[in-house]
Structure formats: C-alpha cells, structure tokens
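fyi for ur records
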Amino acid sequence: MAQKKSRKELISIVLPVYNEEENIAMQYQHIVESLKPFGLHFEIIFVDDGSRDRSVEILSEIAKKDKRVKLVVFRRNFGQTAAMAAGIDYSSGDIIVFMDSDLQNDAQDIPTLVEKIHEGYDVVSGWRKDRKDKLVSRKIPSRIANWLIAKVSGVKLHDLGCSLKAYRGEVLRQVKLYGEMHRFIPVHASWVGANITEVPVRHHARKFGQSKYGIQRTFKVILDLITVKFLGSYSTKPIYVFGGAGMVLFVLSCVSGAAVIFMKIFQGLSMNRNPLLFLTVLLILMSVMFIMLGILAELLIRIYHESQDKTPYTVKSVINIGRQSR
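which gave:
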C-alpha cells in the first residue's frame, strides 16, 4: 500500500454499539494495532445505540485517553440504521469504513478495503466466504436474502449483510438512511452511480454477548426489499405503479362489464342478479382509488424530496466532537 497517499487522507471507522461491554475495548485495541503498520490517519467513531450495560462508561474512558476516538451516545435505542446514519453525520473522513463492535469482523481487513478504494472503487463490500455463524438461523436465511436482493436490485454482491464495508465519503454522504435500510446502502449508492466491488474478509465466531439478529430478520429484509425496489424504480414516479394498477383494473372492469351486457342481450340473463355486475362496479371503484393514490403519492414524493431534513435519531451526548460534520 502506498503509505504516502494514505497519510494525506482520513479514514473514519464507524462502529454501532449496543450492549457490547465485553467486546468494545478489545475491538478498539485490535483496530489500533491492525492499522498502525500502515501509517493510516484514522478516527474511530463509536455510536452507542442506547446500551443498558457499561458500554458507554468503557467507551468514555477510551475516548478520554485517545482523541482519535469519537463517541456519540443516543438517548434511546434507535436501531442499527440510525447508528450508522449518525456515524456518517459525525465523520470527517475521505473514506468511511463500517464494522461491527462484537469482534466478528477483523480490523486487519480494513487496509485491504482502503486499497480497493484507492484503485478507483466507491464501495467495497466485505464477503464472509468462511462465515462463523449457525447454519439454519443465520447462514441459510442470509443466502436467500442475498439472492433475492441481487435479483431485485441488480447489485451482484454475495454478502450484503456483512457489516464490514468501505465507502468513498463523498458518495456515502449522498445517501439518506431511514428505517432499517442499512443493509441496502450499496444499493442506494448504486443509484448515484457508485462503482461497487467486493473482497473476501475474515469472520470470527462471537466470543462474548449474544447476537442481536435471528431468523425473523429474513422477513424484515423481504419487506425492506420491496421498499427498496419501489424507491429505486419509482421513487420519482409513483403514479407509474398506482396508476398502472388502476389502468389494469379499469380494463378488467370493461371486460367484466362487456360480459354482463353480452349475457343480458344474447342469453337473456338478468343484470341485477349477475355477480359480474358487482365485480364490474368494484373494479371501477378500485381503479379510481389506485389512480388517486398515485396522484397523492406524487404529491408526497415532492414534499419528501423538497423538505425532508430530519435525522432518524436523537443524541444525548458526544465526546471529542466539536460539531456535526453534515
């Protein structure tokens, strides 16, 4: 790695924290020791997401001793996406690296990710080829989710769920994060034209504490994927979705209505007792409703894009941070 080039830029390493008192001190030490041989200029941003253990106390002591460590403490638990959004907001780096605070990600892989950024990529995603997790509850649901996301979004990555990722700061700061969309950051980045790649990274079994994820996460991913597909393809033109559905329903109502008339004229059947008449009226009403929903969605989209400037979290306190970066 070209050390001269690396020293001119700042690497922001962001770690969301939630009840990781047994891991965070070792994770901090591992990061410092792993990056020291490369001469990288870096800052470490811990975002405590409402921990109920001694995580904040331990991180406060670390931050007091090392000014490269920044600490953001939430007032309550807002979720991993909000913690990552705060990490972006309070970062100053040219390159932003995300990783977990539970020691499962390996800080020795950070220089590899940074080197890929230097090669011209905007997003470098870690790929846990030898993942140290349970097969049924973690590996299989993850593979299914990754396959679905790749098919729907067109972003061909093996392991979107891996937290260890590096981003060019100027690209990542164009991404707005809400809800539980952190796993789709590369997809969001692809919308702004980011050049994306992935590299194999190390993965370790959890030694302390308990995982915050379970098999139910797969269902959340599927629901989020529907949202991502809508935002990616129709966020500026929702009328194409709702209006399109309305037009299909209107055509079906015309077919149903024509069948009712045909039965009345040629078969002598009563229109009032024909269930197709009720179906025709229902389809017409539904088509009008969908078209109106499309118009309302158009108005809401414009309001959202023009006025939305609210963070998805509330900060209780910060250490070693003078002001928000964004």
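The radius of gyration is 25 Å. thats all i got for now
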